[in-house]
Structure formats: structure tokens, C-alpha cells
């Protein structure tokens, strides 16, 4: 039976992807950083759980041993290109049939953000490796709303981006299903690059209004500096995110995240989640009176 490696298996795309792949009848190896309750839930779902660091070649080789297909995802931070080199090398050694690579919608060689430029370099690296690869160039996740859930509960919708910058947010679960569908049919999708967005484009101000409508509360858009935003998220010293978000602010002014793509719905054959559905499913995060979780 085909075995698929899912990296960042406890993340916004990794968690639902494990379930989607299992439903496709594939064996799943879930790679995580530590053994905890989340790892146990992956085991309980039927996945094989392995532990490791994407920046340690020994760990990557072990994770890819005996794997036929793989999902590569790396968080915002230093080391993406190095991790991609290790992943490509280990995948080549194990004759992997397909890699699905998570990238940025604004991926390009002249990107202002080093993180975005490194995603473009990683796309080139996987192409040079000769391993069949599908690149997913993804816009902002709807999960951004959960990062500011504590602020939304108290009537604040805060972002470091311009109010009129436009994008079409997509749920992590829809990205996961798209990737799982591709991993289930490598011959159809290998060598392709897809742009993934949600079904509706908003400005940041319009999105604040939509979330407020769903929650039946006033939720005016508030723009702050990137450093203030990271302070609010409890990440005051995250230099990589600071530089990336500052660059993305300019990308949005230039319209690089604007527009709607139908690729995810076409690939999965399913309607994508709306912002209203996403917020309703997580209403307890956004309303005072429920158990709260810090952003």
C-alpha cells in the first residue's frame, strides 16, 4: 500500500490532511516535533507518528524511508532552503514518486520577503532534483482569524496590513484536502503549480465587517505596525516574521494577493468553506463567555 509522509502534521494543513489521506485509503506517516497529546490523536486516527526536525538530515532520511509520496511544508523562519535540500536528497534516495510542496501565492525570484524568495528557490530546487513535484502557491489562511481571536472577543479586529488590500482567504482544511487529492493521483498533478485561494475576495476592512456580521458585533478594522501586531500575538522577538509581514504589506499594496482562483474547488470537486462557515465552526474562540484560548 502507498505510504505518504505528512510534515508539520500538527499544523493547520497537516492535521486535516492526515484524515483526508486515510480516507483516500493511503497509509500515513505523520512527522511531528514532539510526543504529546496531539501526537497521540494522530496515532488514534490511524497514522504512524515519527518525530524529527526538518533541519536534521538524519531525521528527514528516517522519515522518508519507505515512503512513496510526501507533503513538504516549512513554517515562516530561517532554514527553508536548507530543509528543502535535505528533503529533496532524502526523497531522491528513497525514489519518492511525488512531493507536494507548500509555497506562497506571491512566490517569485525578486520577492522582497526572504521567506517568499526562499519558497521560490525551493520550487526550483525540487525541479532540479528530478522528483515529480506539485507546488501549491497559497494565499492567507482563514486561520489568521484564530490568531487574533482574543482581540476579536473584545471587539478589536487588528492587522498590520492596509485596510483596502485585497485577498481571498482559504481554510487550512481546504488546502489539506487539495493536497491529499493530489497525493492520491500523482500522474495527473505532477509537475504542476496551482494557485490556491478561497472562494470570495475581501479587503481587510471588508473581512472585519464580515466577521463582525457573523458574530453580530461591532468589529471595526484597526491597522497597527507589524512590531505591535507581533507584540499582541506574544511574538515580540520574532525577527523572521517581522521582516516577512513588512514585505507582505507591500506585496498586498501591489495586488499580489488579490484575485480568486478556482483550482482548489476544481481539484477536490467540492465547494470551499466560506468565512461565515469558518467562524461559525469556531464560534467559541471568538465570543466572550466561552473557554478562551490566547492568540
Automatic annotation (TrEMBL):
Domain of life of the organism encoding this protein: Bacteria
Domain NmrA-like: 3-278
InterPro entries documented for this protein: Ergot_Alk_Oxidoreductase (IPR051604), NAD(P)-bd_dom_sf (IPR036291), NmrA-like (IPR008030)
Matching Pfam families: NmrA
Protein name per its UniProtKB record: NmrA family transcriptional regulator
Organism classification: Bacteria, Bacillati, Actinomycetota, Actinomycetes, Mycobacteriales
Amino acid at each position: 500500500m502507498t505510504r505518504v509522509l505528512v510534515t508539520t502534521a500538527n499544523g493547520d494543513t497537516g492535521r486535516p490532511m492526515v484524515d483526508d489521506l486515510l480516507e483516500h485509503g493511503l497509509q500515513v506517516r505523520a512527522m511531528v516535533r514532539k510526543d504529546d497529546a496531539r501526537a497521540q490523536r494522530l496515532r488514534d486516527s490511524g497514522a504512524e507518528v515519527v518525530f524529527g526536525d526538518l533541519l536534521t538530515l538524519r531525521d528527514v532520511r528516517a522519515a522518508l524511508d519507505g515512503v512513496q509520496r510526501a507533503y513538504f511544508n516549512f513554517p515562516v523562519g530561517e532554514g527553508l532552503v536548507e530543509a528543502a535540500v535535505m528533503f529533496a536528497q532524502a526523497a531522491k534516495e528513497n525514489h519518492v514518486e511525488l512531493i507536494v510542496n507548500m509555497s506562497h501565492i506571491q512566490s517569485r525570484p525578486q520577492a522582497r520577503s526572504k521567506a517568499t524568495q526562499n519558497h521560490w528557490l525551493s520550487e526550483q530546487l525540487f525541479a532540479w532534483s528530478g522528483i515529480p513535484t506539485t507546488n501549491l502557491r497559497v494565499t492567507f489562511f482563514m486561520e489568521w482569524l484564530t490568531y487574533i481571536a482574543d482581540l476579536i472577543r473584545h471587539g478589536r479586529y487588528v492587522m498590520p496590513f492596509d485596510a483596502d488590500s485585497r485577498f481571498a482567504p482559504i481554510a487550512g482544511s481546504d488546502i489539506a484536502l487539495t493536497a491529499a487529492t493530489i497525493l492520491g493521483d500523482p500522474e495527473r498533478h505532477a509537475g504542476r503549480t496551482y494557485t490556491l485561494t478561497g472562494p470570495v475576495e475581501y479587503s481587510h476592512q471588508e473581512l472585519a465587517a464580515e466577521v463582525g456580521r457573523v458574530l453580530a458585533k461591532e468589529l471595526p478594522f484597526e491597522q497597527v505596525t507589524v512590531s505591535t501586531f507581533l507584540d499582541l500575538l506574544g511574538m515580540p522577538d520574532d525577527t523572521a516574521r517581522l521582516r516577512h509581514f513588512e514585505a507582505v504589506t507591500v506585496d498586498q499594496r501591489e495586488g499580489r494577493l488579490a484575485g480568486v482562483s478556482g483550482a482548489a474547488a476544481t481539484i477536490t470537486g467540492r465547494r470551499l468553506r466560506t468565512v461565515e462557515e469558518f467562524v461559525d465552526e469556531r464560534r467559541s474562540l471568538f465570543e466572550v463567555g466561552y473557554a478562551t484560548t490566547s492568540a
